[in-house]
Amino acid sequence: MEIRSLTRAEAERRGALLKVERYDVDVDLTGLVDGTEVRCVSTVTFSCREPGAETFVDCAAEVRGATLNGRSLTPAGGGRISLPALSGHNILRVESVQADTATGQGVHKVIDPADGEVYVWMSFEPDEARFVWACFDQPDLKAPHAFTVTAPPAWTVTSNSGDPRIEELESARRWTFPDTPPLSTYNTVINAGPFHEIRREADGHDLGVYARRSLAPILERDADELFTLTRQGLAFFGEVFAMPFPQRKYDQVFVPEFGGAMENYGCVTWSDAFLRRVTPTPAESELLAKVLLHEMAHMWFGNIVTMRWWDDLWLNEAFAEFACHWAAEHATRYTDAWASHLAGGKLRAYLSDQGPVSHPIHQPIHDVAQAASIFDNITYPKGASVLQQLMTYVGEVRFRVGMTAYFARHAWGSATLQDLIDALSEASGRDLDTWRTAWLATAGTDRFSLERDDDTVTLVAADTPRPQVLAVGAYSRTCGNGGTSGTSGRNDDTDGRHSDTDGEVLERRALVRVEVTQTRTPVTGLPNEADLDVLLINDEDLTFATTRPDPATRDAFFRAAAQLPTAISRGVATATVWDMLTTGEATAAEAGRCITAVLMAETSDAVIEPCLTLAANIAELWAPEGERAGLTEAVAEACLRLAMDPGRRQVALRGLARTATTPDDLARLREQAGDDVDLLWRTLVREAELGGDVSSESALLLERDPDPDAWVRALTVRAALPDPAAKAEVWQKLAVDRAVPVNSVGQVAAAFWRPDQDALLLPYTQHYLDSIPHLHRGGMIPAMVFAGQLFPPHAIDPAYIEEAQKASHEAVPVVRNTLLERSDTVRRMLHSRGTPTDPVSG
């Protein structure tokens, strides 16, 4: 029977009826050593406000036995057990087994290929705890959880609360954890295995990091950075929310075959792909910091104060995404965090917000299946940007006061959007109802341009704009190494490498803030227009809005982007150029040249890598066939020049491994790689794509690579080969068997779908369509990954996109939305390549 998704009406009825007092959950993991079963006994103590009423408990695992107040129960099917004739006080006991720990939801068993050791992790967002044990799986029914875990004697077990009591049994160990504070079911966790563990004391907290034994050297390498960031983040959030993290123990567990990271209270679970097998690049290090701070912010946004229902998912995710950038810039060495956000996530959000699955940040959610479909670019990067605008709108000091009040009022309970708006309105003295409706209840992106009439400059919105505060920067050309004259102090570059064009740079003469309340807004306080070369709308990137240069200065704007003096100003210009490409208002050649020039001028380590990726993507995915080689060569040339700087060498050579086309480029890569196994794998992928015979070399490299997941790199090499047998083998492992770890699917898929291999790839475009009804297998994260990463960017036409979009209507919501969003992006790529399509909306 199909597992039913909890509806909002059902959750509201159950939430009004019940108060959950506690969960006592016994978990037996000993069956995972040689088998697949996790056995659980869940005892739920709860009261009923209407004695005699009926409800249900969620349990999508196999039920072996269930009693309510001593009476036997029969599962109703659909992942539910009916609970009839409730008493005022009730004790429910359910014995269950989850046997699908390979592809099932909630719990996953992994065998490390390096040494055969077994690891198990659990992840429950948004409603996957029910696949492991019986519970009332909705966010507002919070309760303390007490976990008792029986595991093999060599294993370490982690959970939400610290310092378990450990008992030695005949052939196992029993771990008894203290009660957690009141938590939603999705915030709980158990992870286990023969972990390598490192602990550190910091500011009164007992910090721990864990990884599988085969990655112990890498965990040791990264431990100082992880502990430093954890200490900095806990101190920052404890101060700005006036609420220190209330538990002494804070653990972070890195596990294999996990997608992303999960904010389990006091015990964050990570994909161990974040433990880079080679020295991380600056962008990779910053990403680690931001993810760490994102999950930590959830301790407050989501765990201590939880959304009442999934329509307020953004109260968790958007706030955590905003807060991680806020903390990174204020409390860590990653002071360009907002600039890298603009270069990455925000560009994706602009595209998504102008596509077929755009939605309000806050919207009615009918059931949990629909909720799973909005863990997306609107909820995350757009939501973060909107919250940055909200802090700008009310002022950072008042914003902090409002957040302090919000946490003080709602700690360990549930809250709604209105609760937050009330707290911020009181603190700021501003009526935020209009702001809330415009920004949170309305989809779409504002667009601004400037009109100049003699000495008058007017900011013009394309449609009725949202209330917001943004800035206009005024720039004049100068020569030499001059810096900026801006007043913000954020992301200022001081080494003079602002431009690659005749030594000219742009110096900021003024930064004028403008509060927008109507379609036309005068911009006052700018210097004499005759002295200005560029007026940059949304300078400092304070709001979420796209911009356009006026037609008379369009081409000059494209040339000037690389001459702007800061990472954030160059990023704002790049965002404009990128948006014009995606809406068909700029060609791939124009955008590629502009962004490659920005890449050569960029001085922020955090931005160089995403900028290089953007330039390479334009050449590979957006350029017409006749222009692809030239744009690719231009990016390769930029990489060669960047590689002369020792600080940029690693990133530049990775970029060259993606774009090399000449024998000289490939030879230089091999020469530069030396013993760099990562760069050798990347070079082999490129040589394989170009038809080189690299099979023997790949096999030898696999033997010497110490990475336990190196087989994925070898599979990536085979994926790139223009060979029918290799394509068939890779598709089977990737899409049918799902043997590739979820965090590596994108890497293998990108090598599989190569340009200039259309004849080989054509059969797999149909295979993708055939797979759509099954893409949701394994839960939310695999559904998003496989639906998005396997969608073909090549060997298709607009008719195929229509067919895929039509097929998506029968898919579950998370697959449907992911597919529609990805297909819209590819449709825009086809338009840019010159393939006739419907008009591209902006």
Structural overview:
By secondary structure, this protein is of the alpha+beta class. Helices cover 41% and strands 20% of the residues. Helix 5 (337-353) runs parallel beside helix 14 (605-622), helix 24 runs parallel beside helix 26 (813-833) and helix 25 (798-808) packs antiparallel against helix 26. The longest helix has 25 residues, at 216-240. The radius of gyration is 27 Å and the shape is globular.
Task: Outline the fold blueprint.
Elements: H1 8-17, E1 18-28, E2 38-48, E3 55-58, E4 62-68, E5 71-72, E6 75-77, E7 80-83, E8 89-98, E9 107-111, E10 118-122, E11 145-151, E12 156-159, E13 165-168, E14 173-176, E15 190-193, E16 196-202, E17 205-211, H2 216-240, E18 249-255, E19 261-262, E20 267-271, H3 282-297, E21 305-307, H4 313-331, H5 337-353, H6 368-371, H7 378-394, H8 396-410, E22 413-415, H9 417-428, H10 433-440, E23 446-453, E24 456-461, E25 468-479, E26 504-516, E27 520-522, E28 534-537, E29 545-547, H11 554-560, H12 567-582, H13 588-601, H14 605-622, H15 625-642, H16 649-659, H17 663-673, H18 677-689, H19 695-704, H20 710-720, H21 724-736, H22 745-752, H23 758-771, H24 780-789, H25 798-808, H26 813-833
Parallel strand pairs: 1-11, 17-18, 18-20, 21-22, 23-29
Antiparallel strand pairs: 1-2, 2-8, 3-7, 4-5, 4-8, 6-7, 9-10, 11-14, 12-15, 13-14, 16-17, 19-20, 23-24, 24-27, 25-26, 25-28
